[in-house]
Design goal:
CATH topology: de novo design (two linked rop proteins)
CATH superfamily: LemA-like domain
CATH class: Mainly Alpha
CATH architecture: Up-down Bundle
Distance between the termini: 87 Å
Helix content: over 70%
Shape: rod-shaped
Number of helices: 7
Order of helices and strands: HHHHHHH
Largest sheet: none
Strand content: under 5%
Number of domains: 1
Number of strands: 0
Length: 188
């Protein structure tokens, strides 16, 4: 009879260790996903900081492109206001901001003297670098969400995830067809 209690005790201890290991793994993945989201925020903040400088540089050259400049500023402000919302809302407004920036760069094409301005060129390079970093951050975030979601949905960790209230992560994705299309910008 004592052997039965020992076997049951060992099984219970192993189940507890198994449960704790799965739980800790899920917490680690959830935190990794949150960190990846924070990295997107860092890059978006950098882009938000660059946009006013870019707009001011273009404004100094051509006043009559006011509508495009206002659209960029408005899109930036809306994007900043949705910074606490989920990935779906964020991806929508960030797509609108990217579209507005692409239109601004098309406007710049009309003015060769602006394209040659050193301030503009430096800002354009910074913006391009930031856009690349945003893209990599989004990719890393989506990879983190995929890994986390796999763990929360696959057996046996889905049992622990369900018991402990782990919810699926939300991917950062582009929903609108016009946002999926590459902007047509030519610097020739």
């Amino acid at each position: 009879m004592t052997a039965v209690y020992v076997v049951i005790g060992v099984i219970v201890v192993l189940l507890i260790i198994f449960f704790v290991a799965i739980y800790n793994g899920l917490v680690r993945l959830r935190n990794q996903m949150k960190n990846a989201w924070a990295q997107i925020d860092v890059q978006l903040k950098r882009r938000y900081d660059l946009i006013p400088n870019l707009v001011e540089t273009v404004k100094g050259y051509k006043i009559h492109e006011r509508e495009t400049l206002e659209a960029v500023t408005k899109a930036r402000n809306i994007a900043q206001q949705t910074s606490s919302e989920g990935a779906a809302a964020r991806s929508r407004v960030e797509g609108e901001l990217s579209s507005a920036l692409a239109r601004l760069l098309v406007v710049v094409e009309r003015y060769p003297d602006l394209k040659a301005n050193q301030n503009f060129l430096a800002l354009q390079e910074e913006l391009t670098s930031t856009e690349n970093k945003i893209s990599f951050s989004r990719q890393y975030y989506n990879d983190s969400v995929l890994h986390y979601n796999n763990q929360t949905q696959m057996f046996p960790s889905n049992i622990v995830a369900g018991m402990m209230g782990f919810k699926a992560g939300e991917f950062f994705e582009v929903k609108a067809a016009e946002e999926r299309a590459a902007p047509k910008v030519s610097f020739s």
